User: Fold this.
Amino acid sequence: MNNLNHEQQIYPQSPVPAPSAAQWRAFWQTALQSAGIISVSAGAIFFLAANWQHMSRWQRFGLFEALFLACAVLAWFKPASHVVGALGLSGLTVLTGVLFGLFGQTFQTGANTYELFFAWAALSLPFAWLSRQPGLWAFWSVVLNVALALFVQMRSQWGLFSDFGDSVNLLILGGINLALAWTFLSQLRSEWLCRFLLLIAAGYITSGSIGLAFGALNPQFAGILYLATCVALIVFAWQSKPRDIFPITLLAINLVITSTALFARLADMGETVMFFALSFWVLASSGAACAILLGLHRRWEINANTGAQRS
Amino acid sequence: MQSEKPWYLSLALGFSAWFAGILLLIGFAILLEPNSTVEFITIGVLLIGTSYALMKLAKNQDFLGQLALCLSIVGQSFLIAGIYQQSSDAGNLALSALILQALMSVIMPSRIHRSMSALFAVIAWAFWCRSLVLGADFWALIWQSSSQTQMLQSTGSLFFWWLLTWIPVIALCWLLLKQTASRHWFALFDPILRGVLVGLASASFISNFGALFGAIGTGSVAIWSLLSAAAAFVALIFSFMLRSKPLMGFSVACVLAHLVYFYYALDTSLLSKSLLMLVIGVVCLGVQLLLKRHSTHQESITKSGALL
Assistant:
């Protein structure tokens, strides 16, 4: 059984034939069409930006509300599975946020930024649900995550990115993203969307666990949350059909990083010895994790192929 | 039955190897504390030799391969630091780096390493050409001041230096492309070609980043960005001939980055810029429609000829 490494997946093994005349025509048509669309779109946006200061507030609102109405009409008359319907729903989702931003800029209400993002996520939820498009759900998830991150930054004692943040809040954010990933996997069967959210979750969980390793508020509660998220990642991998080692790979990376942070904090050594010890720890833990993950990946692949052959 | 290692596992292993390699090397640097040129060069040669041996042993091993890559890069950094200790002339430093990277791109057993060395060679070439214009001071070469940019203010001289720097690179790409068509030379030249293409698309940006922050609003920087976008588009064409989607994607990103900077550096009003973009966009779409009609017409002629 060959086990191709990443280098062998990038580089071809033999020369490729030169493109045909038809392929060259397709290349130039695609290049010119893409350049044209991007240039016209950018030109339109910059034209608007150049005249923005000269527009009254009613003209500004009128413009975006007319766009909103046009997207609503497209979404009404074409189904979500049609490209026009999907564009309409996507436009509605984006323009909801733009209108909120414009409202906040024009009428200085004193609202917090996270309130704007929460309102955007709440009001655009029906559009994302109607579309059933993984891309739009990914965008909606990013808006929700920005809202949650801003909320945590405002409310937590240390702030999100100083002194590794409030571990408990970060682990809760990781848990929310895990729940979203599970929902999308079961409802939409979209692997890339699920992995995207798992990656966000892993980022939060790792930040939280590093904070825990270096000393955090409520360490017992943070420890229980951390354990729960680790178990959740393992269950995720086992319950996926077919089984997927991606969640366990993320867990392995987290364990290597967290154990290294804990080692750096607890080990009482000289500076030079510390660097050698840390590097050997990373080598050993990564090597062990790799061996386990590869073994698991091969076993699950064999089981999946055997199951496919029987059916 | 083939079992391909998942790309994210390879990526994770790569990062671990790099992290472990850097920690190891910091430990060695603190332990050995090199001071003289001989010490730097000795450490550099030992690290590169170790990397070579690891790459020979690595074969399908991502972890060992990435660790070897990390050791090689740090070894090369020690070599360059040793040369800098001897002479801080930027031109000599760039030329030494160019020769070192050119050798590495041929000798090292790893295809990723050889591509990376080819990319570094193109960057060193760009810096060497800049040193011919802007002088030998190392830090002035990196962080080009606006007064130095005044040296390139004349459009003619800028165009001349751009041609001097990038036409040889484009010619090299063309030559390598011809060589890789042969099975005999494919394994040797294909990784080098890919590295040079990445350099052609991005090295103008990388080697000029000091000027990009120091000379906003001068016409010369805007023109340089436009010419660099053209070079990145040539890289896109070569990448298409190689049928490499990752290279094509990277070249497209570089074209867009250069064009964004061109419009940012252009010394004119936002309204003029927007109208320029609209006109260019309409022209592109018009030419695309004409090409489409022409190819449809050609296809209908071919089909009617075949029927007869």
Remarks:
- Chain A has a mean pLDDT of 85.
- Chain A touches chain B through 64 residues (CB under 8 Å).
- The two ends of chain A are 23 Å apart (CA to CA).
- DSSP finds eleven helices and no strands in chain A.
